Give the backbone structure.
Amino acid sequence: MRAAVVVFPGSNCDRDLAVAFEREGFAVDMVWHKETALPEGVDIVGIPGGFSYGDYLRCGAIAAQSPICQAVVAHTRRGGYAVGVCNGFQVLTETGILPGALLRNAGLKYICKTIGLRVETADSAFTGGYEVGQEIAIPIAHHDGNYFADEATIAALRAEDRIAFTYTDNPNGSVADIAGILSENRRVLGMMPHPERAADHGHGGTDGAAFFRALAGVMALA
Amino acid sequence: MKARVHVMLKNGVLDPQGEAVRHALGAMGFDGVEGVRQGKVIDLTLAEGTTEAQVVEMCDKLLANTVIESYEIELG
């Protein structure tokens, strides 16, 4: 099982994400943003949290145009798996791989705290380790996590069971309390909360561990 | 040649920064400010011969996120 974690100038959760993959048995390659191809045999790409390119222009906008992101887009078009956490979610929406956009938090404040998430679907490689309706505690740390999409997009996400997680107490103004969504083929997930920051007893919570364990279970069979 | 690109959040997209500015203006005693929308202006210095179509492509691909933003181009 191989995972690749993309590293942009300004990424700061890249090693956390790599450690979370490694503890479930993935071999992890760190891939610099100037690379034009992913390593051979990568099962899943992780796009980490942070402030890629200083959040200039819009969060994730410049990262989405980087050489490695063209390779990530090609990987997902081939049906490859990818997960974007926090800034990684912003990057995935900016590439168009996932619909919608992340706006400034409604309260205009950067929020860093552990919040409650409701698991909305267990039908994905990412969420298969949870029960639908299960509430989990996962940290958030963002200034621009206010998910926005037009009504037709939200209706499609609902109809296709592509809302992965919602906030139990919406911290940032996201439409429909959305914290994380899936792509049409359910193989790409973007979420603002950080499961990799709740994957070890030393983190103060382990509700994120099942996320990576479920992925490892699916990848081991592949 | 120069181009100026105005980028604004689309109508219907919440602008929390504009709302905060509106509240501040009200608190300062400026009555009657019914709405504030905040955008950005991007000035481009371009080689002669750059076409408007190329600037449109720049806007669509990078300068604006057309999911949430609209833009206007002024060529000067």
About this structure: Chain A is about 25% helix and 25% strand.
